[in-house]
């Protein structure tokens, strides 16, 4: 009996990178790319449509970043494995990724063989982290063990007071979208967008666009390219 290939959806907003990943994956035995997505919102929609085994998710994408897209995917179709692909190896992004329910985190400077291994690993139910990412996690654990109370305070502070919908809207605001454009993207009225924006400003105690953009960047809602 022939074993079914591992089906993969590739989500990355850079066309050359995305197409390069598709080409690389075509070289792997037992792995089949079934779809692509150029932004986080499309990644969620395509995942629900195609039900792939694994989603290879870029962390930095427009309309909906990879972290929020992962949260939505894991909530709607928890059996789908999500492997984050990122250029960022700092503790903040890695910890945020784990909180989304992602099954792995690998760096974009990894080899093709490492990518194949990562996909097969998360598909089989195991977590996968690039070696340097594992080192960051180990150091974070050691710091938590040495000062659990302080670490708990930091972790608690990192929790966003915003709902998932509010984080979506904040990302779009930070990307320069008008309320009308946001309404069109999310299929809601401008008045509803206004209400969400007012709630965001009240929760964060931030009352200007520059402050909202700064908050979005500092909290990983919008991720600046390196």
In short:
With 226 residues, this protein is an alpha/beta fold. It has helices at 15-25, 40-50, 66-76, 91-100, 112-123, 131-146, 148-158, 164-174, 179-186, 190-204, 209-218, and strands at residues 6-11, 31-37, 54-58, 81-86, 104-107, 128-129. Residues 149-157 have low confidence and may be disordered.
Walk me through this protein's architecture.
- The chain is an alpha/beta fold.
- The protein is 56% helix and 13% strand.
- The chain folds into two domains: 6-139, Rossmann fold; 160-218, Arc Repressor Mutant, subunit A.
- It is built from eleven helices and six strands.
- Strands 2-1-3-4-5-6 form a six-stranded parallel sheet, sandwiched between helices.
- Helix 5 (112-123) links the parallel strand 5 and strand 6 (128-129).
- 34% of the residues are buried.
- The model is unreliable at 149-157 (pLDDT under 50).
């Amino acid at each position: 009996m022939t074993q079914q290939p591992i089906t993969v959806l590739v989500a990355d907003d850079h066309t050359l990178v995305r197409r390069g990943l598709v080409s690389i994956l075509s070289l792997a035995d037992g792995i089949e790319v079934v779809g692509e997505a150029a932004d986080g919102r499309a990644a969620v929609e395509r995942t629900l449509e195609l039900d792939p085994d694994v989603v290879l998710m870029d962390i930095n994408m427009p309309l909906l970043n990879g972290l929020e897209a992962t949260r939505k995917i894991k909530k709607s179709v928890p059996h789908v494995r999500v492997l984050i692909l990122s250029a960022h190896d700092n503790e903040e992004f890695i910890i945020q990724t784990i909180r989304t329910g992602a099954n792995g985190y690998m760096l974009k400077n990894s080899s093709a063989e490492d990518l194949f291994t990562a996909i097969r690993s998360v598909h089989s139910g195991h977590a996968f982290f690039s070696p340097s990412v594992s080192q960051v996690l180990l150091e974070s654990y050691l710091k938590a063990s040495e000062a659990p109370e302080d670490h708990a305070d930091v972790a608690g502070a990192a929790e966003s007071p915003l709902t998932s919908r509010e984080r979506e809207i904040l990302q779009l605001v930070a990307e320069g979208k008008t309320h009308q454009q946001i309404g069109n993207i999310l299929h809601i009225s401008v008045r509803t967008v206004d209400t969400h924006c007012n709630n965001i400003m009240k929760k964060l105690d931030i009352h200007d666009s520059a402050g909202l953009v700064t908050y979005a960047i500092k909290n990983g809602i919008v991720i600046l390219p390196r």
